[in-house]
Task: inverse folding
């Protein structure tokens, strides 16, 4: 059974940092693209950051460029999202996903809440 389990969410003041982690089990992520998405109440889910299977290619939403960094440790089947200079508009449920490409996502985690107060 494939599981993606997110951790690291929480509450932080604006300007602060959080580091999210997504651990995969029952699934080999070595050959998979990994990504982070977020969804705020009343808004559509949006892609935040993606990373290719080998880690050489990354892509970020314009709203997080220069503040968020995605990385992965294939030996530990884990992907990370370092979030710095957080803003209240970053408040959302953050989800990890694994898939065949940046456009085809096959597995999803349950999400971890990030709340940024002003």
Result:
């Amino acid at each position: 059974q494939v599981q993606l389990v997110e951790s690291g969410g929480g509450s932080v003041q604006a300007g602060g940092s959080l580091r999210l982690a997504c651990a995969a089990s029952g699934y080999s992520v070595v050959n998979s693209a990994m990504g982070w998405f977020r969804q705020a109440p009343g808004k559509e889910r949006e892609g935040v950051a993606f990373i290719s299977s080998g880690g050489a290619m990354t892509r970020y939403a314009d709203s997080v460029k220069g503040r968020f960094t995605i990385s992965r440790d294939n030996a530990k089947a884990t992907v990370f999202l370092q979030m710095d200079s957080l803003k209240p508009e970053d408040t959302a449920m953050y989800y990890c996903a694994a898939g065949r490409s940046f456009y085809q996502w096959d597995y999803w985690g349950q999400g971890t809440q990030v709340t940024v107060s002003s």
The CA atoms of residues 72 and 82 lie 11 Å apart. The first strand starts at residue 3 and ends at 7. The two ends are 40 Å apart (CA to CA). The chain has a mean pLDDT of 95.
